[in-house]
Amino acid sequence: MLKSLLIKNFAIIDNIELNFSDGLNIITGETGAGKSIIVDALMLALGERASSDVVRSGESKAIIEALFYNTNFELISNPDDELKKIFDDFDISSSTDELIIRREIQAKGNSRCFINDTPASVSQLKLLGDFLVDFHGQHDHQLLLKPENHILILDDQANINSLLSELQQLINELKKEINNYQKLINDSQNINELTEKYSLELSEIEQISPKENEEEELEKLLMRIENLEQIFYLVDSILQNLSEGNESVYKLLNQVIKDFEKLIKFESTLSDHLNEIKTSLISFSEISNNLRNYKASLDFETDIPADDLRLRLTKLKSLRKKYGSYDNIFHKREELKKSLEIADNINFEIEKSRLKIHNLRRECGTAALKISKLRETVAKNIEIEIIKILAELGMPDAQFRVQINQNPLTISSDNDFKTLYVLIDNLPFELFYNGIDKVEFYISTNKGTELKRLSEIASGGEISRVMLSIKSMSSNKNNLPILIFDEIDIGISGRIARKVGLAMRHLSSKNQVIAITHLPQIASLADNHIHVTKFETNGRAKVNVITLEGNERINEIARLISGETLTESALKTAEELIDFN
Questions:
Q1: Helices marked H in 60-112 — which ranges?
Q2: How far is CA 35 from CA 30, 42, 131, 175, in A?
Q3: Tens of pLDDT along 94-145?
Q4: Rounded distance, CA 403 to CA 423, Å?
């Protein structure tokens, strides 16, 4: 549950703190007092998009801090890997006593986020928020009237994410193969031109036929050939100084050894040095022998003329420059070979791709039909549940239907790719990103009237009750800890308002509910009643919040009944509404 919400320097709010309780939390106040701003602040804390415009004029930053208590993520069905990663990153247990989410929005435009005092990203806040809160605002009425959103509501109840994911993978494969088929068709139309082009490109590579690390090895070989005389001179010079000259190191070390042998007769402790010098003499002797062999192998008449090497290197470098790297050259060579093979067998490849598309359409059809049948089963359960809840909300004669239709097609050829379609029992049906179904809600609110599209309902009160029915049904499945309603009671009053309030009260027995309302019938049902007022001080608007109890609460409900002038009858009605709980 949301325990408290701290808001500083946000819009017209300078500094307020709201405390919430279990059950039904009601927020009242005059229009423009700042009730919706409070909800907006909470949604920003839970990762909604923010701009610097929300920072109170003259302040450097806005701060929103939400404290959640007894947040039981174990109740959430199938938390995904991202959520588990957040638990690990922020040392949050799946059943934590306290969760603090804080967001700071700078006047300069940037923002900082924290989860339990550890820096976090906006996307992490959003992910947590999606598992904590289900928000319904006034704008959701319009969303409900759009048929394209009805399938989302149905799928949320059907719990078919894994099936949709499998279908999406098949659709992606189908689209990829269709693109491949169309490329093959285009290639076949230009096959002669392409074959000539590919052959020339491959011939260029094959004529040079580069090898792995060849350029580097040829560079070394050319350098050796071009400097052969200097190499010969340097080897000869080393040999003279090392072992062949009159004053060579070898001869000098021999003399040193003789002197040492005489010396150790007088000082045996120096014998180790003599052994080291003898070892060195052996090493110098081996080096000399190796250099003599190397000198003898030097041949001024090389197998490959230097000019030929330079020409070879020029060709290799030109080819490398054209393709960027030798890896690219080798890859291009294989690609060209494969393209020429395809060109040689283009008709075979076209038929192979056409058959693959046909099979993928059937696979997509099987997957889409499985989803469609599950939707039909769940739709019947939804119809029963919605009708039941609408009856409780003062619409005892309401009928509700989830209409599911598919769009069969007339396809003249397998090669028709203008419309994406699947095959079910070899019959083509139009395919959408989420299957073959079009879903729309139909409703009849009075006995004896025909079912009509939900979008044709004129009454805002009826739409509000349908939305509340959907939210009530969803809460039974999703187990979201917190439900927020921003004036869901639009267009209702009197007896119906009381029924809507009781439905919200029923919801609050399983979920914490936070609702903004102007209706006394709903406000009187609150477990926790928060009143928002706006006033002016020093030429600036400020917002204040208080938790109403006792007479203050009675007076506020009376004002909702009669306006600013409190009448005896309004006060009496307010007391009766509260006592009736």
A1: 81-89
A2: 8, 11, 23, 48
A3: 556 788 999 999 988 788 999 888 888 888 888 888 778 888 766 666 677 7
A4: 22
Q: In 8-59, where does DSSP find H-type helix?
A: 35-45
Return all residues near 482 (Cβ < 8 A) that are at least 6 apart. Answer: 1, 2, 132, 133, 134, 511, 512, 513, 514
Strands 512-516 and 24-28 come out as parallel
- 303-321: buried (b, 16+ CB within 10 Å) or exposed (e) per residue? eeeeeebeebbeebeebee
Q: What is the 3-state secondary structure (H, E, C) of 352-381?
A: HHHHHHHHHHHHHHHHHHHHHHHHHHHHHH
Location of structure tokens 């307020």: 16
Q: Where are the alpha helices (DSSP H) in 190-325?
A: 191-208, 214-226, 228-239, 249-263, 271-297, 306-323
CA distance 343 to 192: 9
As a whole number of angstroms, the distance between CA 76 and CA 395 comes to 32
Residue 93's pLDDT band (cuts 50, 70, 90) = low
The token duo for 395 is 């619409």
* Interatomic CA distance for residues 406 and 269, integer angstroms: 104
Q: Give the list of residues 6+ apart from residue 561 with CB closer than 8 angstroms, or none.
A: 520, 570, 573, 574
